[in-house]
Design brief:
Structural class of chain A: alpha+beta
Helix content of chain A: 25-40%
Strand content of chain A: 15-25%
Strand order of the largest sheet of chain A: 17-18-16-15-21-22-23
Shape of chain A: globular
Helix content of chain B: 10-25%
Radius of gyration of chain A: 22 Å
Number of strands of chain A: 23
Oligomer: heterodimer
Radius of gyration of chain B: 22 Å
Shape of chain B: globular
Largest sheet of chain A: 7 strands, mixed
Largest sheet of chain B: 7 strands, mixed
Number of helices of chain A: 17
Largest interface: A-B, 17 and 19 residues
Number of strands of chain B: 28
Number of helices of chain B: 6
Strand content of chain B: 35-45%
């Protein structure tokens, strides 16, 4: 009797495994961190074998902890840190080098070269992405050029490329399946999101042989089965999705106009734009949300580099708070920000400004400014930044946001959630389940095997714990927001070259 | 404050809320501007039932209808206690003022849901003084239902429109002596159901073909002189003095279009002229409700508002709407039509009033019988559903109302 779905959530700092039952209840969680390797400043790597071993270990752990038999697992859903690049030998299954992580900036110069050669528009049109070291394409090129004999072996078809999902899939199926899903493929900068194929033009510009690349399938699809070596059973792997897209799905943002925000160290905002890809003119990325039942859904994605990190800085840098959880109480102690605005541009500003030279700013200070105002301004900043990205999404897609679904650590802060709703002018929905990335992966898997019949059945289990409705007066809201925008202007173009 | 919205809706009464619903469903970003401190408009003071029969299949009071309706709307921005100062149609900017200061809102499409205002008693130009104690019916209703004041102790009502009859009952229920309702026409001005439920059931005399010819009193009204009328002329010898300290006048509603009368095509009755998409002569301006034609049923007003909102949202999102193809002309027996043009692209509803009461009334459209009403009255709006796919309309659609006997 199939009762559970196992979600494998392979993240940037840890591998996690979560067991869900049919009602989306968590039966067990297991997590293990692994090493972050920094060979040089700005370079980040992971050991692919450690990624694999920690993922298997937590998966086995969670099954054991929950006391269930692997026979009861209907399917496995995989969700992963996106863009991180791994190349391995087809015959031995061994990686040719460490995994190059999404944060790694080693290929920045390569990207500048591509931009100088004028490829920006072509790549944007085909892939929806800007040319950036973020995405897998240039990382693959770096590996082919810098690892001994990699280029020749690749031409002969002896080397395989995968994002982390492909790497896990390949190993779990005993080397039988080399594939990925649309959402992950769309983060490589090699995939044409309109024709849904690896783009031969881009491959030739980067000198990447097609033989390297995995087959691309819908996110909800039975990719293959685990070899018995891992869990004693052949469990179908029924879903693969990049982590942010999985969270969007876990948040039940099935239709166009539905959006989610994950409030973490930084924030990732995604809006489902339906079956139409919209090119962004406001600094956002067009990406594939998922492929499901013969349909492809697209999303606009905006990342805000520093959100929770600003709160951490209050604690670790400025030392005016002892823990993040104090901020809610402190912010509520004062009736407003008293004119104080904090622009947390620690590493420049992402969407929609894209100013790498902006730096942090606290403005509006008077003798009456207290610790509480600064704390409040920090939380308010998170809400203002979110609105800016959402406005960019609305302008790009012509779709008006009706509500925002939220997840991530900061959603327990009810001051922030209410202020977010006030500043947006739309309700903010906080679901019961917090493990939305894993839940999304699990739901994709369940749909492919028939464990869940359709999206309606999945929606039944999605429960909102709390709705924050906008209460702020419109004029007041616009006044605060326009002051924020003025503050941002003061923070732009600060650091010299 | 400066802001931009897809659709701006002027007026937050039944029509405005309908437009909010229609626009939100069309995915537009909506701003509602309202002069009072809440939505609902006249619904808030209409504590009698009779609302929602069509929209909710329930008989609700005004405030209940308002609540039910609002409950199902999503989130939208609103400016309350705000007055519009001007509309720049060329640049699509509205400017206004409220306690926070001046606001300028740019929009892609506009919905006029400004309703109507009451005709003042003074418009009747009845001889006598101008003492206090004379109220329009809607204002008297607001005084009693919202402000908790009694207008007086002994009242008469002039005008047997719905609101006059409803106020007659209301005054009596509050312990005021109601001497009678005076109506200059030989038939009641409002719905038949109100004649029964407000006057007959409460023993309030209805004096048809009777009106006021003099107002008495210097600082406070002391009485009225009434007399019978025949064919609009007073009948000599029928004069009678009635002492009252309060006069409630229900003498008509005027569509509220002062803001737009220079730019928007208005009918002779000062209502906005619209087509079946509730669109005015300006392609991005829509209207619905009492400011296009005076309605009886709030349900029809909500429906018009929804249509206006729907097409405003479409236009705001860049959609192209079909052109007007036909003109609706009222012929014999018809007093008003709610729409004057049709695009002939979809089935549409016209709300009409007959000129005078007609028994066994047949509504004819282009010479074809379309609807039969046993007792058609000017006070009861008639719903006429037309379908261009079934009837092949030309560029002129003639509508008339005649008695079956004449056919």
């Amino acid at each position: 009797m199939k009762k559970y779905i196992l979600a494998l959530d392979q993240g940037t700092t840890s591998s996690r495994a979560i067991l869900f039952n049919r009602n989306h209840e968590i039966i067990g969680i297991s997590q293990k961190e692994f090493n972050q390797i920094y060979p040089k400043p700005g370079w980040v790597e992971h050991d692919p074998m450690e990624i694999l071993s920690t993922q298997i270990e937590v998966a086995r752990n969670v099954i054991k902890k929950a006391g269930i038999s692997p026979k009861e697992i209907d399917s496995i859903g995989i969700t992963n840190q996106r863009e991180t690049t791994i190349l391995w030998h087809r015959h031995t299954g061994k990686p040719i080098y460490n995994a190059i992580v999404w944060q790694c900036r080693r290929t920045s110069q390569l990207c500048e070269d591509l931009k100088n050669k004028g490829y920006e528009k072509l790549i944007r049109n085909k892939t929806g992405l800007v040319i950036d070291a973020y995405f897998s394409g240039t990382k693959i090129k770096w590996l082919l050029e810098n690892v001994n004999e990699a280029q020749e072996k690749a031409k002969k078809g002896e080397i395989l490329f995968g994002t982390v999902d492909s790497w896990l899939l390949y190993n779990l199926t005993g080397g039988k399946v080399h594939a990925t899903d649309y959402s992950n493929a769309s983060r490589t900068m090699l995939f044409n999101i309109h024709s849904l194929e690896w783009d031969t033009d881009i491959l030739s510009i980067l000198g990447i042989p097609k033989k390297l690349l995995p087959t691309v399938h819908p996110s909800s699809y039975v990719f293959g089965c685990t070899s018995k070596d891992y869990f004693g059973e052949e469990i179908p792997i029924g879903g693969i999705t990049g982590d942010q897209q999985a969270a969007l799905f876990g948040q039940n943002c099935f239709k166009e106009g539905m959006a989610k925000n994950t409030y973490g160290t930084g924030s990732f905002l995604l809006m489902n734009t339906g079956e139409t890809p919209y090119e962004s003119k406001h600094g956002l990325i067009t990406t594939i949300a998922w492929g499901i039942r013969e349909k492809i859904y697209y999303a606009l994605e905006g990342s805000i580099f520093i959100t929770g990190a600003a709160v951490q800085w209050l604690r670790d840098g400025l030392k005016i708070i002892n823990s993040a959880s104090e901020t809610e109480k402190l912010a509520k102690k004062v009736k407003d920000n008293s004119g104080v605005y904090f622009v947390p541009a620690f590493v420049g500003l992402g969407a929609p400004y894209w100013d790498m030279y902006a730096r942090g700013l606290i403005i509006g200070i008077t003798r009456d400014t207290k610790r509480e105002h600064i704390v409040r301004a920090t939380l308010e900043a998170i809400a203002y930044e979110t609105r800016e990205v959402i406005e960019a999404m609305e302008k790009d897609s012509g779709i008006t946001l009706k509500s925002l679904r939220v997840d991530g650590g900061a959603v327990s802060n009810s001051f922030l959630m209410q202020f977010q709703s006030d500043i947006l002018g739309v309700p903010v929905h906080k679901p019961f389940v917090s493990e939305l990335t894993a839940l999304g992966a699990s739901n994709f898997a369940g749909l492919s095997t028939g464990f869940y019949e359709n999206l309606d059945e999945i929606s039944k289990h999605y429960k909102i714990e709390r709705v924050y409705k906008p209460k702020m007066d419109l004029t007041n809201r616009e006044k605060l927001y326009s002051q924020w925008k003025k503050a941002v202007l003061r923070a732009l173009e600060w650091k010299g070259n | 404050m400066k802001a931009h919205y897809d659709v701006v809706i002027l007026g937050g009464g039944a029509s405005g809320l309908g437009a909010v619903k229609g626009s939100l469903e069309g995915g537009a970003r909506v701003l509602l501007v309202e002069r009072e401190n809440s939505t609902g408009g006249v619904l808030n003071q209409c504590i009698h039932t009779g609302f929602g029969l069509k929209v909710f299949k329930k008989e609700l009071t005004g405030p209940e209808f308002h609540e039910y309706y609002k409950k199902n709307l999503g989130s939208f921005d609103s400016l309350f206690e705000s007055t519009i100062l001007g509309i720049d149609f060329k640049n699509r900017i509205i400017s206004g003022i409220n306690s926070h200061g001046i606001f300028e809102i740019s929009f892609k499409a506009l919905v006029l849901a400004t309703g109507a205002r009451e005709k003042p008693f003074e418009a009747l130009r009845i001889p006598g003084g101008r003492p206090s104690g004379i109220f329009t019916a809607g204002f008297a209703q607001k005084l009693i239902n919202i402000e908790n004041y009694l207008p007086g102790k002994r009242a008469s009502i002039i005008g047997s429109g719905d609101i006059g009859m409803i106020m007659a009952r209301r005054l009596k229920l509050e312990g005021i002596e109601v001497v009678g309702v005076f109506e200059i026409m030989p038939y009641p001005g409002g719905l038949t159901r109100n004649v029964y439920q407000c006057l007959i059931d409460y023993d309030i005399p209805l004096h048809l073909s009777t009106s006021i010819i003099r107002v008495h009193g210097k600082s406070r009204i002391e009485g009225i002189t009434v007399c019978e009328f025949n064919d609009g002329k007073p009948v000599s010898g029928t004069e009678k003095f009635i002492p009252v300290d309060t006069l409630v006048a229900s003498v008509g509603l005027i569509p509220e279009n002062d803001l737009v009368k220079e730019d928007i095509e208005l009918s002779k009755g000062e209502g906005v002229i619209v087509d079946d998409l509730m669109r005015t002569n300006i392609p991005f301006v829509f209207a619905g409700g009492n400011n296009i034609v005076i309605h009886d049923l709030v349900d029809f007003v909500s429906i018009e508002g929804e249509i206006a909102g729907k097409y405003a949202a479409l236009v705001s999102k860049g959609g192209k709407l079909p052109e007007r193809k036909a003109r609706l002309i009222k012929k014999e027996g018809i007093r008003t039509l709610s729409i004057d043009y049709a695009t002939l692209t979809k089935p549409f509803t016209v709300y009409l009033r007959v000129e005078h009461p007609i028994r066994n009334c047949v509504i004819m459209v282009d010479g074809k019988k379309k609807k039969y009403i046993v007792n058609a009255k000017p006070s009861e709006m008639i719903e006429l559903e037309l379908n261009p796919d079934k009837d092949h309309f030309g560029s002129i659609i003639e509508i008339k109302a005649i008695s079956k006997e004449v056919l």
